[in-house]
Amino acid sequence: MFLCMRTTIHIDDHLFAELKGIAADTGKTMTALIHDALRESLSRRRATERPAINLPLFHGTGVMPGVDLNDSASR
Question: Residue 74 in contact with residue 67, Cβ under 8 Å?
């Protein structure tokens, strides 16, 4: 099912004039150009989102004999 929603947006006069010119040059509707621009912008945003990083976990048997965690000079 295709859902179409209408809304009102406020566009800067210079941007509107450029959009209208591109629509005339390409034969596309202004709606189609706005859809394309939104899709491209959202796609770039998704591409720059960082994926979650899964760090490896190590399970040990504790501190080695002779190591004092409260003393940074201990060996």
Answer: yes
